[in-house]
Amino acid sequence: MTIAITSLIKSFDRTAVLRGIDLTVEAGELVALLGPSGSGKTTLLKIIAGLEWPDAGGLSVDGRDWLALTAQERRIGFVFQHYALFPHMKVRDNIAFGLTVGPRAARPPKPEIAARVDDLLALLQITHLADRFPSQLSGGQRQRVALGRALAIRPAVLLLDEPFGALDAAIRRDLRRWLREVHEATGSTTIFVTHDQEEAFELADRVVVMGEGRIEQIGTADQIHDHPASPFVARFMGAVAELPVALHAGRVDAAGLDASRLERRAMADGPARLFLRPDAIALEPDAASPWILHQMASNGAVIRAVLRDGTGLELPADLPRHSAPKLVKGAAYRLQPLSGAVFASGLGPAPSEAAPSSILQEKHA
Amino acid sequence: MIVQAAPIRAKRVLPGFTLSLGTTLLYLTVIILIPVLALILKGAEIGPTRFWAIVTSPRALAAFQVTLTAAVVATLFNAIYGLLMAWVLVRHDFPGKRLLDALMDIPFALPTAVAGLSLTALFSANGWIGAWLEPQGISVVYTIWGVALAMAFTSVPFVVRSVQPVLEDLDPAYEQAARTLGASEWAIFSRVVFPQILPAWLAGCTIAFARSLGEFGAIVFIAGNIPMQTEIAALLAFIRLEEFDYNGAAAIALVLLIFALVLLFISNRLQAWALRHKAV
């Protein structure tokens, strides 16, 4: 099922939550909506599900207008953040629910329902839990039941809201791999919402980065990682260090900065901002540099160094402990970024007013 | 040398556990246990033969029948109306909602005698509503309908106030989940929402019924208190007491107590059943 979303707008009271969303999700694709809280990703998911209604815009699936359909008619599988399993029903009845409530004519006969539930229990590896109540299950088990309940109606589209948000790290990793397998086994078009980059990049075919009600960038993990389309995406991807630089003939220039390993940009000369991730900075001793090593702490694998320049600007750098040069507190170092994103400055820090990037924007992919 | 350390005791958040438990138990004994025990002893001291004779006398039987019938009618009405009221107060927004919510407590706050008087005034043959009902051949005052009306009036908040908080706390995600699974609005209510408010609703109905069995003040004004027709059990016990027939009064009261206890037991079993999924 191909989902086409056009110019979707939604506000709650006077707060704009979605400010014009255009997105196409291909049949069988697994897409992540990634963004910080308040970016509108869950609202977008709920609009696709029919649990919220947009103020304007279009939503069609395989050419059919879904805004003319109720949630009941859309045949979607929705997995809620806190699962929303029916507490008074056993696991088996929870999974069977969608098969037993449809119009009488569309309801499969009882033996078929039982067989389908058994198949799902086996697929989700929870056959032994069939006769338990949700209150008797762990978080990971509830997650599987919630997915089973959503899959039971053979949904055209599977939607998951922060599917692993409430689970601990080890279970998250397990379930992630397992969700990918389930997606491949069922072949349903799947969209999930998350604020966890690692989760989004590991699981999804394509990642949609959202910020303040807009789509900031659409792409694969590598594209977004290497070429953030806006300061917002750069920051969200962990580029916490921002340096004011000058652009000359496509090269960035600043005191104590060795930009030889950065590629040239097709950008006009002038002031700009360089966004760096702490793990993409190397340090070279250089007495002429204004960057002084101010603090350092090791977690065993990585040394986190904090440098400070004459103006009080601070810059964190994460260096592998075994290969990093011997660092001396109070000494001066030259920064050698391994990668970084450059955006013309003077356009304000607001992500919604993203500066034109030097890199091809992946919007409306 | 091994030194035997003093056993470590968990610190409690609230101090004075022994004192507070003792006070609670003492109050429970003085206020609830002793009166109930006295009632049972008083009723028992006359012996089973006389006890049976008192409670099966035609007038007593008629009083029990009136009380029970009217209480059942009132509770059935409140079960439905109270649920509806709670639903409207939780799920809908309309002007005057807060006022309506506050009005719901009036039966609790109003002296029952005042309630009885106003109901009588309204429903008597020349009252606002009675004047309209009477020509249709429906008389409320001085009939068992009057008894049921007074009971319903005084006990409806129990159902509303039991169901309301549970309905408020119900996560909307349950209903949304059911909706995405294709459930009709009726299926969402009957299979997802209602089972979850069932225990609170049962509890509310039980208390409403128990309250109806014991209601006195509001009923005596509207019922007319005609022996064998609209005389309720609580009033009969009162009359016996005024005649200095303590044993007779205690015997009738004891039967009311047994009704209430049986009901409480049934209701607890039903609630335990409705909450079976909470058991871990």
Question: What features would you describe in this structure?
Answer:
The complex is a heterodimer of chains A (365) and B (280). Helix content of chain A is 24%, strand content 31%. By secondary structure, chain A is α+β, with helices and mostly antiparallel strands. In chain A, the strands form 5 sheets. Chain A has a 6-stranded mixed sheet with strand order 6-7-8-3-9-10, with helices on both faces. In chain A, helix 3 (91-100) packs across helix 4 (110-123) and helix 3 (91-100) runs parallel beside helix 5. Chain A is elongated. The model of chain A is unreliable at 348-365 (pLDDT under 50). In chain B, helix 10 (185-214) packs antiparallel against helix 13 (246-274). With 280 residues, chain B is mainly alpha-helical. Chain B has 2 domains: 16-46; 49-279, MetI-like (MetI-like fold). Chain B contains 13 helices and no strands. In chain B, 75% of the residues lie in helices and 0% in strands. Chain A binds chain B through residues 49-51, 70-72, 74-78, 80, 82, 84, 86-90, 97-98, 101-102, 133-136, 149-150, 152-153, and chain B through 171, 173-174, 176-184, 187, 191-192, 195-196, 274, 276-280.
